Amino acid sequence: MKDLYRCLDAYSPEMLEGLARAWHAELPRAESHDQATSLAEAMLAPGALDALISALSPAAREALAAVVAEGGTVPGHRFALRHGPIRRLGPSRLAREEPWVRPANAAEELYYRGLIVRTYGTIDEHYGEVFAVPDQILARLPPMEPPSERLAGHEVPLPARVRSDGAAMIEDILAVLAHIRQQHVAPQRDAGDSPHVPPIPIAHVDLGSRLLGEREPDRLDLLRCLVWRLKLVHESRGALRPTPRARAWLRLDDVRRHHAVVLAWRDDPHWDELERMPAIRQEDPGRGYNLVPARRALLEFLARYGGAWRALDGVIADLKRDRSDYLRLDGDYDSWHLRDTATGAYLSGFEAWDRVEGALASFLFTHSLRQLGVVEIGEDAEGQPTAMRLTTLGEALLTKRHTPDGTPQDGQAPPATIDDDMVIAIPVAGTMYERYQLERFANWLGQDGVARYAITEDSIWRSYNTGVKTDQIDHFLRRTTGDRIPDVLARNLLAWGGRFGRATMRHAVLLQTVDEATMKQIRSRPELRRLLGELMGPTTCLVEVRHADAVLERLKAMGIWPRLVGGGPRDD
After folding, report:
1. 98 with 38, same domain?
2. Are 520 and 495 in the same domain?
3. Residue 290: pLDDT band by 50, 70, 90 thresholds?
4. pTM of the predicted structure, to 2 decimals
5. Which of 1, 375, 431, 435 is 20 to 30 A from 354 in CA distance terms?
6. Which residues span the domain enclosing 88?
7. How deeply is 349 buried, as exposed, middle or buried, from its count of CB atoms within 10 A (0-12, 13-18, 19+)?
8. Of 213 and 122, more confident
């Protein structure tokens, strides 16, 4: 809250005299406090404010409208970059230059007429100098038209080439979850990794042709970071497993599921696109910068454009004009230690904006936001990015207008069909959880608007070995197809189920002792006996692989240090 009386009371006599001249008011011969009170009353007199505003230049009215549009307070550096800096003039210069008569720019025109004041405060992530309209002035301002945007990012025709990822990132997360559920994926951490680094091996994210999106390293790294940050997998008994949260995420409607992924990227303090830009080198390797506020500001900025194609360089020009501080909200363009990779020169000062903020925005548009399905990128015939637009989904996310999720409603036809070749076809929209279930017992063949899966004896056998029975599969397929499954499939499920399990193969560790007494000593311990498998002889027993490390630790605690041979636990 900026009280007009208190603000004026802090001004020098010279400043008060200048403001009085601007408002055509007479100051009494009195103490400065009484002069400030008298001036405030004159400024709030009926008709005085309207008369002053009508005399403002168009640029000053637009600057005032911009402050009002932001609630009456704006960061000082952002306001100065767009409307000009306000000189700090001492008493002599104030008397000599009379800035209320000859302001240097729109910002000075407002400041030296008392319509804005300079102070300190917090706005979102910014703390520092701010410009504010005093409360009493703000409450009495006549209706003001919002500042014209004059977008440099003008609409352009459909580009020669369009790069659009759509929902590829979300579909690839589904692929990774299905893969991790079906495979024994051990967590992997390299020496020196910080706790926020996902322990998901990149080999179990790079699934080849199973992925719909690009397989370039940065995107694969983002993919595994999203899986981990969304808490869709966790470590359990030495392996990675999908979490209950994964099932909840898969059951969301398409827009909310996509929204959760975009928010996970936006709010990740450890994901640093600056580190991934080849033209910029950070002076302090590994320091990293928290880009969460920048990503938040950029998404808010993008919401203005709607779904039309816009010139990419024009959008960045708009960003420079209206939100030049999106990356460094404090307006400090000197303290970040960034260098040009090619020349080694420091990238400091606002003059480096195009090579830092502008380049980062372009990178975010053409990489992260495209890969997340928020924007599409238009390219010229040589493949250079020239245009961009919000996707339908991106527009829904940024404007918070959710679209229907496409999930079949009661009474509608069931989504899945199965042909006589035992190939399942299911629409992609609104069926992600059902497709996640299908991946347990069917082989993914491909997808566009419809996903296709093949049921084979081998795929059913693999699911049987994860605990899924053929009668469960039959029930699921009848539910998702409205009880329309081919007779050949029903017969095959029955026949295959009868053949599975007639023999058993398992991974196990063989524990052998030098004599029967040692084996009896080991098996006499309750905490060990429950971890041991069946006896194969008086000196030999089986140990399931999942219990091998625990058995080893307990044997060592007893003073029995086994010799590890072949595939024994921790046999490196």
Report:
1. yes
2. no
3. confident
4. 0.80
5. 375
6. 4-140
7. exposed
8. 213
